[in-house]
Amino acid sequence: MRNLRNALLTVLATGLAVTALAQVPAAAAPAPAPAQPKFLSANQLPASHTSWTAGPIRKGVPAEGSVCTTGIAPAAGTRHRDFRTELDTNARQTITVAPTTAKAKALAAELRSALETCLDRLKEQDPGLEGEAFYQGRINVEEGAHVYSIDTSYPEVGSTDIGLYSVGRDGRTVTVVEWGQMGELDGAPLEGFKKTTRTAVAKLH
Length: 205
Hints:
- Strands 1, 2, 3, 4, 5, 6, 7 and 8 form an 8-stranded antiparallel sheet that branches.
- This protein is of the alpha+beta class.
- The termini are far apart.
- Helix content is about 30%, strand content about 30%.
- It is built from 4 helices and 8 strands; from the N terminus they run αββββααββββα.
């Protein structure tokens, strides 16, 4: 009789344990990490006489900063990618994901201001430098993108360089696209660069 009672108690205890386990809610699966913004690929750069080569996507701001916007984008939340051709044409895309939309707006505004004042600052640093800078218009994509050109020269040595720049935003994400080579604005692929900028902002998310 004692053995039967012990057996019943064991069965009862086991049943209670199983019931208790069944009532414990399963741990919620961790939420998937948000998708990282997408970068341009080499074939999305403006047409060139030789093909573009895309470098790796790197975290943080570039070790060799951009001449007009160095020190503005924070390292946290920033990644960048460099591109080049065989004919000394280069490009770079930098993407920053800000903590809030308001901070992204502020970052985009600060980057635009840096581009608008870049040539004047370069001339202050190097009095022998000459050049022209132009605002090339707004592109209607996501929250908008803005395009600039900066043409510089050193008359004493006869060298000229042209740079195309753009700042675009999609929500909390801000991207800067830069393109540069020797030459003048007349020889720069401005319309191709605008198309590249549109693509860059559209494919962020």
